[in-house]
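Section 5.1 Outputs to date
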Amino acid sequence: MEKSEPKYICANCAYVYDPAAGDPFSAIPPGTPFKDLPASWVCPFCYAGKDIFDPLD
C-alpha cells in the first residue's frame, strides 16, 4: 500500500494544506505534494510563505 503525502499546517493561521485536495484558491491541482508547490506559493488565508508550514502528524 502506498503511503499518502503528509499534510502541512500553517503556524500562523492553522490552515492545513492537504496534498490530496491541492489548493483550489491558487490553482494547485489535487495530488500535488507540499514539496512540489512553487516557491512563490503562499497560504491562501494569511499569505504566509511555505517556510511557516510544519508537517502535520
